[in-house]
């Protein structure tokens, strides 16, 4: 679930985000591999998962942090999270652009599958920079406008600098949640403007294909994914780019 200005989009009974992830084991495990790789060997005092929905990614963080908080704007998703996460993880209703945490109080921030709901992430990135400790890190996932298949489709035209709305024409109205892909170079500059620098990047969900998932065993997909994430990061191959960022 993304952190958005219209949190009520995820509050209606028609939106079953927990159900959405059924059958998407490859995508979830690909993201778990990325997080484990970016945070390997590190331990933190306080982590917050921003816009974490029902806690899909939040549930991975206790192995890396003594105290974990899920910050999510949708009350419906927080109610689901209460059952999904159980005890031990704090849940707060909050927008990514207005986090209820003290400056420098977090040494790990994650924001996964949120940027695709933020055509202009300036305020959200500034908040991450504000709450992040001087020696802390953040893991930010970006829906990649320049992924390999899109570059082929746009051959000779290049990748647009600004975000591109990928909603269907009938859904492009004010009542529908934004859904955009971003230029990674632009996001890197936006991070820099917020006082954050990219330490490492990974190309994630490189084999995201319904046809592949039907014919290739899950364990084989993950074996290839694990090897591909760092190898394909430089060419930004995949539809999802994970960025490890720090202050400075």
From TrEMBL:
Claim: Nucleotidyltransferase is one of the keywords in the record:
no
One GO BP = methylation
Q: Which domain of life is it from?
A: Bacteria
Q: Name one Pfam family in it.
A: Methyltransf_11
User: Is the keyword Transcription assigned to this protein?
Assistant: no
Listed GO molecular functions? methyltransferase activity
Question: What keywords were assigned to this record?
Answer: Methyltransferase, Transferase
Show where the Methyltransferase type domain sits. Answer: 48-140
Q: Which Enzyme Commission number(s) are listed?
A: 2.1.1.-
Which family, according to the similarity comment?
A: Belongs to the methyltransferase superfamily.
Indicate what this protein is called per its UniProt record.
Class I SAM-dependent methyltransferase
């Amino acid at each position: 679930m993304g952190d958005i200005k219209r949190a009520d989009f995820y509050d209606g009974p028609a939106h079953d985000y927990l159900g959405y992830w059924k059958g998407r084991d490859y995508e979830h495990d690909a993201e778990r591999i990325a997080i484990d790789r970016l945070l390997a060997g590190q331990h933190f005092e306080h982590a917050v998962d921003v816009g974490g929905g029902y806690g899909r990614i939040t549930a991975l963080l206790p192995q890396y942090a003594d105290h974990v908080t899920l910050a999510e704007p949708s009350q419906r998703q927080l109610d689901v999270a209460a059952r999904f996460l159980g005890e031990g993880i704090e849940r707060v209703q909050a927008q990514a652009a207005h986090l209820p945490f003290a400056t420098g109080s977090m040494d790990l921030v994650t924001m996964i599958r949120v940027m695709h709901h933020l055509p202009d992430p300036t305020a959200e990135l500034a908040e991450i920079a504000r709450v992040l400790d001087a020696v802390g890190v953040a893991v930010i996932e970006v829906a990649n406008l320049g992924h390999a298949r899109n570059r082929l489709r746009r051959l000779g035209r290049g990748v647009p600098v600004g975000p591109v709305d990928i909603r269907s024409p009938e859904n492009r109205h004010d009542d529908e949640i934004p859904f955009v892909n971003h230029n990674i170079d632009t996001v890197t500059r936006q991070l820099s403007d917020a006082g954050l620098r990219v330490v490492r990047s990974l190309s994630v969900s490189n084999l995201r294909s319904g046809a592949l998932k039907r014919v290739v065993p899950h364990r084989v997909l993950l074996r290839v994914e694990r090897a591909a994430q760092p190898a394909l990061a430089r060419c930004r191959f995949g539809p999802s780019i994970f960025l490890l960022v720090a202050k400075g």
